[in-house]
């Protein structure tokens, strides 16, 4: 008993001595001049790691960064990354890892470091980023960094987290796994798709769709029959997303299944568009033609969407060649699609339709399309239609003749007028005027000076449209020298029209005034009107 008391007393005394010694040391230090003391160094808090990378400059400032503070250190780090060569990324990566490991780094500082690591990070960053995945404050920036890294280690870290994370964090991890197209995660994603949490289940289904592999497609097919009704449409949409990323041969069979009427209409429409796009040319053409003759407007639109100007021209030519064999409604739709596509060989189809149109509307549509696809060789056919009794076809043919841009159309019309009857000649003259054909002037002057009486007026009107100051001399001679009242009146009418629309009135006067002494009152009045 006495020995025990002695030991306790000794310990108390020793402790008191120790405290005294410490107190004495503090007193002695307080007596030293301030100048002799070692200056304090401002350094970043020590990172929690065995061999920390020294943080200086903007990287040290990043530890204490907050949104209210200047972004200058952040800009400096971004500038470092922009200037660095890929071989130098590891040095920047090590500093950013050190920032993340530092227990005193702020949340904004960690978030910024993560964002920079998705640009310069590699395998060395993965363990540090993986430890941050369950921290709700920085989980999203950590997973974004891993998501963008091509490293298999990054994919594995995200995949492993599927077994650990919960709630909103898990939903985010699932999304990142989908963005990685990680085929090894398909089994886990499939099981998560059956979770009771609707957000988790939906995220897993979406991730399977983005994975885009054959195993993901099989998993989604299984889920289509097992998932609750509330997920059925989402699973079907995910199947479309998945199959779009697969090889065409594998994709076609899945697209076929998804066009079934039991699936939502948007899924069926997308499946048909994908099926057509992934098929070989004969199958593609067949599907487009069959769908265009169907009754479903949305499916028709999906089929026609495969006939855009940047799609395969051989397939478009094959569809165009088959138009005459379709129902009138389908013909009209396809003619509207191809009418402005100059690279499609549509002309033979248009001529076949015009020879035996399924309806007046189809014939008119074919004539309209010749504006773009017609040739000068088609002028006789169009003139024949334009002078026929069918009003719809006639009006369309006249519009086409007036607007055709093919070479040689004016010359073909002029040549044809020599062989045509009066009605056809009159229509041709009006057409040439509408085309503002200067090449027609010699023919028109000939008609005005002594052509058929029924055509003189038409020629005069046309000259008033296409004629110019350079034609006034010839018209003046006709007006002055003609003994027939009809040619003279026609020439005078053309002179009036040309002078009225010509801005250079002096040029007109220079031609007309010398003839005033021989002119009729009408010609003189034309000059006075200027």
Report what the structure shows.
With 530 residues, this protein is an all-alpha fold. The protein has a domain at 440-530. The chain has 31 helices and no strands. Helix 10 packs antiparallel against helix 11 (198-211), helix 15 (265-278) runs parallel beside helix 17 and helix 16 crosses helix 18 (313-321). The chain is elongated and about 115 Å long. It starts with a helix and ends with a helix. Mean pLDDT is 85; it is low at 1-50 and 521-529.
Give structural attributes.
single chain; 530 residues; mainly alpha; 31 helices; disordered N terminus; disordered C terminus
Shape: elongated
User: pLDDT average, as an integer?
Assistant: 85
Helix proportion? 55-70%
> Structural class per helix/strand content?
mainly alpha
Major β-sheet, in short?
none
**Overall number of strands:** 0
Oligomer: single chain
Gyration radius from CA atoms, angstroms: 44 Å
Q: Which stretches are poorly predicted, pLDDT < 50 over at least 5 residues? A: 1-50, 521-529
């Amino acid at each position: 008993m006495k020995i025990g008391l002695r030991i306790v007393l000794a310990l108390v005394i020793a402790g008191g001595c120790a405290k005294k010694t410490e107190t004495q040391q503090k007193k002695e230090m307080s007596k030293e001049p301030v100048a002799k003391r070692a200056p304090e160094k401002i350094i970043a808090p020590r990172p929690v790691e065995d061999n920390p990378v020294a943080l200086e400059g903007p990287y040290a400032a990043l530890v204490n960064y907050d949104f209210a503070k200047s972004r200058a250190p952040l800009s400096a780090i971004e500038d470092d990354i922009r200037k660095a060569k890929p071989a130098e990324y590891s040095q920047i990566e090590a500093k950013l890892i050190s920032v993340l490991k530092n227990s005193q780094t702020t949340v904004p500082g960690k978030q910024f470091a993560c964002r920079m690591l998705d640009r310069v990070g590699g395998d060395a960053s993965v363990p540090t980023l993986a430890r941050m995945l369950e921290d709700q404050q920085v989980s999203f920036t950590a997973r974004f960094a891993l998501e963008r890294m091509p490293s298999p280690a990054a994919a594995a870290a995200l995949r492993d987290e599927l077994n650990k994370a919960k709630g909103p964090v898990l939903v985010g991890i699932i999304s990142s796994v989908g963005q990685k197209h990680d085929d090894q995660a398909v089994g886990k994603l499939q099981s998560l798709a059956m979770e009771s949490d609707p957000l988790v289940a939906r995220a897993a289904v979406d991730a399977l769709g983005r994975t885009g592999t054959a195993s993901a497609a099989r998993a989604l097919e299984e889920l289509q029959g097992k998932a609750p009704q509330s997920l059925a449409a989402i699973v079907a949409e995910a199947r479309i997303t998945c199959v779009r990323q697969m090889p065409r041969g594998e994709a076609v069979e899945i697209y076929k299944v998804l066009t079934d009427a039991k699936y939502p209409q948007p899924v069926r429409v997308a499946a048909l568009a994908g099926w057509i796009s992934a098929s070989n040319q004969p199958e593609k053409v067949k599907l487009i033609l069959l769908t265009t003759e169907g009754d479903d407007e949305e499916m028709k639109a999906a089929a026609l969407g495969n006939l855009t100007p940047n799609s395969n021209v051989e397939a478009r030519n094959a569809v165009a060649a088959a138009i005459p064999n379709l129902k009138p409604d389908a013909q009209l739709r396809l003619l509207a699609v191809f009418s402005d596509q100059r690279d499609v060989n549509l002309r033979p189809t248009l001529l076949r339709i015009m020879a035996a149109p399924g309806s007046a509307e189809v014939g008119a549509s074919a004539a309209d399309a010749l504006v773009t696809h017609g040739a000068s060789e088609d002028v006789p056919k169009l003139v024949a239609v334009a002078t026929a009794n069918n009003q719809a076809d006639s009006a369309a043919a006249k519009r086409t003749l007036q607007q055709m841009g093919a070479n040689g159309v004016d010359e073909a019309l002029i040549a044809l007028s020599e062989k045509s009857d009066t009605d056809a000649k009159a229509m041709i003259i009006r057409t040439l005027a509408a085309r503002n054909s200067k090449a027609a002037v010699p023919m028109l002057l000939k008609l005005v000076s002594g052509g058929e009486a029924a055509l003189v007026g038409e020629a005069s009107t046309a000259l008033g449209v296409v004629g110019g100051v350079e034609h006034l001399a010839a018209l003046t001679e006709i007006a002055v020298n003609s003994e027939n009242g009809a040619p003279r009146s026609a020439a005078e009418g053309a002179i009036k029209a040309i002078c009225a629309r010509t801005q250079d009135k002096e040029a007109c006067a220079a031609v007309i005034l010398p003839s005033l002494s021989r002119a009729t009152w009408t010609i003189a009045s034309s000059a006075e009107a200027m």
